[in-house]
Write a structure and sequence with these properties.
- The structure holds 2 protein chains of 2 kinds.
- Helix content of chain A is 73%, strand content 3%.
- Chain A is built from 12 helices and 2 strands.
- In chain A, 32% of the residues are buried.
- In chain B, helix 9 crosses helix 17.
- A 5-stranded mixed sheet of chain B has the order 2-1-3-10-6.
- Chain B is built from 18 helices and 10 strands.
- The chains are: A mainly alpha, B alpha+beta.
């Protein structure tokens, strides 16, 4: 209890108090100044928008790919074990390593990706990946999809294997098509696994930091700056802990709202 | 009850005797110093080891990468833990530390040693950075590494195409265009790019832009202290940067020092603004494909004289240090001409005029005369405690313009508005 109190409760209360303090030339002022400042901070809203675009795109792709792979590998086929094992490798790597490796591969001049494309005679002059305002967001999303689809796959596969055989036999007897079976048998029974995987991934994606920090540091310009990066910069570069705490609470509130929506939506139908 | 008293007494006695035994008879002096990892910090670490051997003072080193050093030091100094007796700091951080009154005024300590201030051998531009307010105020640090930007160019290609040495920015543009168009079969089968720069947001873009900005007559702030980056001169400077960008390798809007260094060392780019720390790698056969082909000079001019950005490493004594007098002894010792010479031989540009003119050092580092000229005429980044925030905002818009996300005038207008907001909050 004492550990919990000192490591979790005290910092929480402390961060609430500093979010209500603003350092001005007249000393520290109490109030909602930090939260009011959010409204006029273009960087904050842009970073928020980037975070949601990033999270939505990565989550959709990871979920669809993960589900497809899980359905594919839920059947008996040759080399299934090997295939499964190799799919898990990206997830085993530390995010920092993934970031550094992809940063090298995406380098427009010396990187492996443009090098390979050149071999096929593709003009790579405009494919500057992390340096292009249009491709940078796609690049960081692709890296996340590469690393975390296996996790989605793993959880969904476990969910699929836990579904008993009987409902399928019943559906077969009723003469339902493969799509109908999937829609009315597999999906409803897979719901708990889907809920868990979506919740975990959403929370992770909304607070993404390390791989973007390594891949682009939020650039070029501000093109891939997510809210966590902006909070980090505000706290540890500008030393404005009050404002950083205020932003963290807004992020926390939003994450909570999303989680509640998920749980409502997926568990009550 | 008696038993409790007896036990308490026993425990107290036990503690007392054990602490008595542990108290050393001779007190060894001890200093803890926060250094940056890399060549600048390595030289200071070696100096600390030599000092320990010479004086018996135990020197503890706390080493941090550049990206963490500022936050570690600032957190520690603000929390008043007194963990460090000496700190290395990059000069743009100095106004923040000075503004928050976190460093020891060195003058009274120097006076106690019989000195009135720093000696006249230090480069004026370097000492000016150590004073708060800039140039005129009290002395809070001593300069240790005398970096300032230089202009790097491929003299072999300039000779090949009979180009004028890069004395003005228009000369640079002409040369970049010529080399870019003619050297299509470069070192690695690809072309040689005419120019290469770092335009990643933050420090990188700002550092590579400032010399152009100043030469074109731009100023961060006007006479009344208001931000003025979107002046006609400022916008013209950014337009010029984008012109140069046409001859830079694709993706330069995300380049940092490493990418620029790699292009120059591989011979795939012909010109750049860069820092002296890179010079020695050009004569290292394991890294360089352009041995003997690089020339280093002062920054080109335009409407105004060319000025380099200064980037010195300073050493200061935190106010929370409990060993300030001892720390000053080390600081004075480490910045003597003799010790700084040793540091120079380890690869760090000095901050003393006599060493830039030292025959042996000039033989080893032929760019020293150019470095001294660059350093003496250099300019600091604006001395404001909010520089980190301002640089971040400015860098974002410079990088946006260079990546094509915003037109130059728009980028400068938005940058100006953001800088204005930062200053307003500070007021």
């Amino acid at each position: 209890m004492a550990v919990l109190l000192s490591l979790s409760i005290y910092p929480l209360i402390y961060s609430v108090t500093i979010s209500l303090q603003e350092e001005t030339s007249n000393g520290i002022e109490w109030g909602l100044g930090n939260f009011a400042r959010l409204a006029s901070d273009n960087f904050f809203w842009t970073a928020m928008a980037h975070t949601f675009v990033y999270a939505a795109a990565a989550l959709t792709l990871e979920f669809l790919l993960g589900l497809a792979l899980a359905l594919l590998l839920n059947r008996q086929m040759r080399g299934r074990g090997l295939f499964r094992a190799s799919l898990l490798v990206p997830m085993m790597l530390p995010t920092v390593v993934v970031g550094v490796v992809w940063r090298l591969m995406l380098n427009p001049n010396f990187g492996a990706i443009n090098g390979t494309l050149k071999q096929f005679g593709i003009d790579t002059e405009s494919l500057t990946w992390t340096a292009s305002p249009r491709l940078a967001m796609l690049s960081v999303i692709a890296v996340d999809v590469w690393q975390w689809t296996p996790f989605v796959f793993l959880v969904l596969l476990a969910g699929l294997q836990a579904i008993p055989q009987e409902p399928y036999e019943a559906a077969l007897i009723d003469g339902s098509s493969r799509w109908q079976t999937f829609r009315h048998v597999t999906l409803p029974l897979l719901k708990p696994a889907i809920l868990i995987v979506l919740l975990l991934r959403t929370m992770d994606l909304l607070r993404v930091f390390d791989q973007i920090f390594i891949l682009t540091e939020g650039g070029p310009g501000f093109a891939t700056e997510t809210i966590s990066l902006y909070i980090y910069r505000t706290a540890f570069r500008f030393f404005d802990f009050g404002y950083a705490a205020a932003m963290s609470f807004v992020l926390l509130a939003l994450t909570n709202v999303i989680s509640v929506i998920y749980i409502r939506f997926l568990s009550h139908r | 009850m008696r038993l409790t008293k007896f036990l308490t007494l026993l425990i107290v006695l036990c503690f007392a005797s054990s602490t008595c035994q542990r108290t050393p008879h001779t007190v060894h002096k001890q200093l803890t110093i926060a250094v940056v990892s890399g060549v600048e910090g390595d030289a200071l670490k070696q100096a600390a080891a030599a000092y320990q051997a010479q004086t018996g003072t135990a020197m503890n080193i706390a080493e941090f990468p550049y990206s963490n050093l500022f936050e570690k030091e600032l957190i520690d100094l603000k929390a008043r833990t007194g963990a460090y007796d000496l700190i290395m700091l990059d000069d743009p951080w100095f106004p923040r530390f000075a503004y928050e009154q976190l460093m020891t005024d060195l003058t009274p300590l120097l006076q106690k040693r019989g000195q009135s201030g720093p000696d006249a051998d230090f480069v004026d531009a370097s000492i000016a950075l150590c004073r708060h307010p800039y140039q005129t105020g009290s002395l809070y640090a001593l300069p240790y590494v005398g970096n300032s930007q230089l202009f790097f160019y491929r003299k072999d290609l300039f000779e090949k195409y009979s180009l004028k040495p890069p004395a003005t920015w228009p000369d640079v543009l002409t040369a970049a265009k010529t080399i870019h168009e003619k050297e299509t079969e470069g070192a690695n089968g690809g072309r040689v790019y005419g120019y290469v720069m770092r335009a990643a947001q933050g420090n990188a873009a700002v550092a590579d832009f400032m010399p152009i900005f100043w030469a074109f007559g731009g100023e961060m702030f006007d006479a009344s202290g208001k931000p003025a980056v979107n002046s006609p001169e400022g916008i013209a400077a950014l337009e010029f940067m984008l012109e140069l960008g046409k001859y830079s390798p694709p993706g330069y809007a995300s380049f940092n020092a490493d990418e620029v260094g790699a292009h120059l060392l591989q011979g795939t780019a012909a010109m750049s603004i860069n820092w002296p720390a890179w010079i020695s790698s050009f004569s290292d056969p394991s890294k360089s494909k352009v041995i003997g082909k690089m020339e280093f000079t002062t920054l080109p001019k335009a409407q105004k004289p060319g000025q380099a950005e200064i980037g010195n490493w300073l050493i200061a004594i935190p106010r929370t240090s409990r060993n300030a007098a001892e720390a000053l002894e080390f600081l004075v010792w480490a910045t003597t001409a003799e010790q700084m010479r040793a540091s120079a031989l380890r690869g760090n540009p000095p901050t003393r005029k006599s060493l830039f003119r030292d025959k042996e050092l000039v033989a080893k580092y032929p760019a020293y005369p150019a470095q001294l000229r660059s350093l003496e005429s250099s300019r600091p980044r604006p001395r404001t405690p909010y520089w980190n925030e301002i640089e971040n905002a400015f860098g974002i818009f410079l990088s946006k313009a260079n990546s094509g996300a915003l037109p130059p005038a728009e980028a400068m207008n938005q940058a100006n508005a953001e800088i204005e907001k930062i200053l307003q909050r500070a007021r």
